[in-house]
Amino acid sequence: MLNGFKDFILRGNVISMAIGLAVGTAFTAVVTGFSKAFITPLIGLATGSVGDFSEAKFSVGKTVFPYGLAISAAIAFVITAAVLYFLIVAPLAKVQERFAKEEAADPKSEKRDCPRCYTEIPAIASRCAHCTSEVEPVADILAKLDESLEKTPVPAQR
User: Fold this and answer.
1) Residue 24 contacts by C-beta under 8 Å, 6 or more apart in sequence?
2) Segment-wise mean pLDDT, segments of 10 residues, the chain, 158 residues
3) What is the C-alpha separation between 71 and 107, in angstroms, rounded?
4) pTM to 2 decimal places
5) Which end of the chain has fewer CB within 10 Å, C or N?
6) Which residues have C-beta within 8 Å of that of residue 152, sequence separation ≥ 6?
7) From CA 51, how far away is CA 65, in angstroms rounded?
């Protein structure tokens, strides 16, 4: 039972997830600190509050509503999301797009009509499966097929 737990903990994806959580927590602390140190006071100055906007509140009877804290948290969230998107998500998407392999088109998936019986047959067919008449394969499809066969690596012999 302990060996199974050890295998689970030492799996690469669990360790990567733990590192990601630690880095994410540290990043959130940095963004929250930046928001409290610079953004919140600037908003406070712009709205007429003196100094720290996160201290803003209003009262109804004896109940105090610290709306400045909620607005500060929302600003920190937006900054965190924007930085993560523009510095991590968008660049990684471009890298993945650049290194993505193009999938070869399946020449058998392209269809055409038989000139004699008008049933649908593969474009590379040389004989109709329904009326058995000979048909000329589409040259473009054959050229693509030859091209894809040239690109396909031949497995090494053992």
Assistant:
1) none
2) 72 73 84 78 71 74 85 80 82 83 68 86 84 78 65 65
3) 57
4) 0.46
5) C
6) 104
7) 18
